[in-house]
Amino acid sequence: SSSSSSSSARERDNGKTTTSEANFMPKNLDDGVDEDDDDRRKKIEETRRRSSFSSSSSGISKLSKLRETSSIPISQRATDLPKHQQDEKSRTKNWTYPSPKMFYEAIKRKGWQPPETDIDNVVKIHNVVNERCWQEILKWEKEFHPKTLSGGGGGGGDPGEEETNNASVSLLRFKGKPRDYSPKARLLNALGYKLPFDRHDWIIDRNGEDVRYVIDFYNAKVPPQGKGDSSSLEVGPIAMHVDVRPALDSLEAFYERAYMQMKWISSGRWMR
What is the mean pLDDT of the chain? Predict the structure, then answer.
């Protein structure tokens, strides 16, 4: 019943932490491979030392201050927006992603020293993942609450792409909970699967009603690269699986989750 962006759960790896308002820790900053914590800490410290040298040697940051506007509407009831979002709200009605420079400064406040040369790619990954999460939420909304989507999803667009600019479904707030594993994640872990490296709770505004969605982020199997393929990220290309579903806060959510689970089982996709 989950919504995923790639591959089997058997390939999932466990990561460590998150990045400020940047909603997940990119894999090149915490590779999350199966190894002892001491070995992982040593690798992280070594990465920090190399990164600190490479970023300080240039002296002047060349990171862009330009910000990308998301497709995710801001709820009209959102009253506790960060200042940088309040400033942008006068220009756009959608959430605005942090610039590479803002992202870099936020990561540094968390104690990391990533190479500035990686930040542009990291921000792109961050933005794409958030857009995917919003599209997965809209799939649930279209399935069970189509009247709230102001005509979203009706013809004309690319298959699977929903209308995002509507006032009746918007994002009210979100919160990262990287170590507060969801019951589903704990159950899957008990069955032998890896724990997610991050978790978010997104509270959407459904025509004036607060509805909570849970999003678990997993590292997925990286597709094989061709001979000419390359990546500027230290650990190679990124693959990710996102499990997006409404939180079990109501009987309605229980029904929706059960319905989608049965629909997934009957489709036979789980056998592929």
Answer: 75
What are the strands of the beta sheet with 209-219, ordered from one edge? 169-176, 198-206, 209-219, 240-246
H or E element that contains 217: strand 209-219
Q: Which residues pair with 241 in a beta bridge?
A: 218
E strand intervals along 36-102: 69-73, 94-96
Q: From CA 18, how far away is CA 178, in angstroms rounded? A: 7
pTM summary value = 0.70
The pLDDT tens digits for 178-217 are 889 999 999 999 999 999 999 999 999 999 999 999 999 9
Cβ contact 12:220 at 8 Å: yes
Q: Which residues contact 18 (CB under 8 A, 6 or more apart)?
A: 24, 25, 176, 178, 198
Sign of the dihedral through C-alpha 52, 58, 59, 62? negative
Q: 193 with 243: CB under 8 angstroms?
A: no
